[in-house]
Description:
single chain; mainly alpha; about 90% helix
Amino acid sequence: MDLLNSELEFFLLCLxxxxxxxxxxxxxxxxxxxxxxxxxxxxxxxxxxxxxxGTFTLIIFALFGSVIFxxxxxxxxxxxxxxxxxxxxAVFTVLH
Length: 96
C-alpha cells in the first residue's frame, strides 16, 4: 500500500509539472484561431496528431534526453541559463 501511495504521489508530481509546461488552457485560443477554417472533424484530427507528437517528444527526451544533450555537446545548465536569459530579455523589452 505504501508503494502505491508513493507511485501516486510521484504521478501527481509529474502531472503538476507537465500541466503548466504544456499549458492547454493557454494554447486553446491559439489552436482555435489557427484552425477556424477547418471543420470539427479536421480539428479533432489535428489535435490528436499534435498530442501524439508532443507525447512522443516528451517520452523520447525523458528516456534519452541526457544522452542527446551529451552527444550534441550541450549541457542542461547551459540550456537553462539560455532560457532564463531569453525570459529576462523579453520582460525588459516589454517594459521599455
